[in-house]
Amino acid sequence: MPSRRDRLNVDINGLRGIIQQLADEDRRSLSSMVRILIEEGLRARGKYPQSGLELPTMASLVKAWNFEELADEARLPVERIEAIAKGERPTDDDLIALGRVLDLDTAQLLEIRTRDFKGAGNGQGRKNG
Prior knowledge:
By secondary structure, the protein is mainly α. Helix content is about 50%, strand content about 0%. It is globular. The model is unreliable at about 120-129 (pLDDT under 50).
């Protein structure tokens, strides 16, 4: 299944080492770090929306990726990615791992999980719907 993410090939000649160092420091993938740097640049120019954006669901975040690719980049078993996509509540460890790859930091992922799984305790609940 091909990824449904909006992709862009960019020449980073001479920048890879610096970007990789930043990614390593933040424990993120290289592609996630590039996304963050682009967003920061757009915010600095006043071209990135600051508010009014609705946070996605955990399932929709995961479904936007090819499961094998996301599992590889997040260093999680494909079965965990599939379970989250089907509505299973991600653990704290899942969020930390996904935070390295997705375009959201761990605090945002915690907010999404809390919103998605109100009343689901100890990682065992499933989202209704």
